[in-house]
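#structure-requests
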Amino acid sequence: MPLVKQRNRCAFEHLSSLHEQTSASSNRYRKMTQPADAMSLQMVSAVSNSSLLQPGSSLLNFDGHVFFFGQKGWPKRSCPTGVFFLDIKQNELKMKPAAFSRDSCYLPPLRYPAICTLRGNGESDKHQYIIHGGKTPNNDLSDKIYIMSMVNKTTKKTTFQCIEKDLGGDVPEARYGHTINVVHSRGKSMIVIFGGRSYIPLAQRTTEKWNSVVDCLPSVFLVDFEFGCCTSYILPELQDGLSFHVSVARDDTIYILGGHSLQNNTRPPSLYKLKVDLPLGSPCVTCSILPGGISVSSGIVTQTGDTEFVLVGGYQSDNQKRMICNTIVLEDNKIEIVERVSPDWTPDIKHCRMWFGCDMGKGSVLLGIPGANKQLISDANYFYILRCNKAEEDEEEELTAQTCSQASTEDQGDSTPFEDSEEFSFSAEASSFDVDDIDTYNEDDEEDESETGYWIICCASCNIDINTWVPFYSTELNKPAMILCSSGSGHWVHAQCMDLSESMLLQLSEANVKYFCNEHVHLNKGLQTPKKAVHLKKQPMKRLHKKKTMKLTTPVKKSFLRRLFE
């Protein structure tokens, strides 16, 4: 009997040791596999006036340095290029303006453009960014294509070169919310443009639909990067136009995922595969419909490996954000989309109505959500950095595959123009820059334009709405005419709200006189000091019958007259 107990005890100890070894190995396996799928979310404290970062902006990654492009509003004199270096240290987001070389062209701030990278030869790690389309601050759509590259980088200043590429042939129309990718086949490279939205043709515009947008035709455009020749292809598999979709490219294949159809107001779970063959003759473009698509618009794709991508953010309906994250793997001419563990979203992110963001490169994403209404600055946003691969967080190797995705910027008012007339300033702390840096962006150099927006409520009876406004005067194009009221420190009012005729508006703009709005004109008259009346000098009245004085003639004259008549 004691022998049986001893054997049982030995067997129990052996099983316990095996269990501990199994638990330890499973824990080690869990620790080894968890960082690869773990996603960390870190909040970044933005400085004041962070409204410069708005939906539709883009981020460019040059040699591990992230640059911001596409501010909402025209650039100011402290940073005329509109390109900023994002300096994120100790959970603080600061900005430093960048410069352009003298041989660069003008690059307007474009929101919702299509951006992708163009790699150089295999020996060089340098790359360029291709920027096409987008919205200007005047709500005009661009049809130009720009090539942006870094030419100099120092601790104090970053210089870029921007070149506009001339296009010919079937030039894509001006658009936004589309994608652009680079494909490689048989030793050649081509640029592929697809999707997006544009304004309705001028011949179809009416007063009610002046700023309405429609889906672009589902044509695929091939652009020869060397000569700028464009060719359009109509494929039977592509029936409806898409915008704010996601595209991932590798070698000669492009995968188009999700998107929003404005015509049907749907987000179809579509997945298209575009294959581009570049022989010696004409290019060959084929399209096939694949199963396993995802219903998402405005998603963000970041690359975490040579063949691995992560899809985050976006919307799955008009009133619902997409909180699920997916891993996209491209191998052996196939695509695999699997769901992955989402990060621990904060309550602010879960309950906010909209969000936006951009790919920062190297598996990181910058997310932004609107701030609380109780904040002093109504345009303030909260920012987070989402790292999709913690194990490779500090690696500096460049990724070789091409990605292109629209920033998570779409909201319920995406089909209507935004308030592009407002300008935003960004104040950076002086400690973040060198003392001798003359390129520091200082908001004190700018004028306070918070009260000069074109879409403000100028008076109690103001009826100017950005969504319903149409040009009233012949001088208006896409912004309402405004006039400065000289009451107090001055404020801007809409000329249409003041019931000013066009002739009176032109006269006031040309004449050097002060104008007072309808609310301050009576107050101004009451405060004016009465002018001193000028007394007129009264001239004495002439008498009607004035006696003439008799002139007496001398004797000499009398004798002369007598001799004259005799």
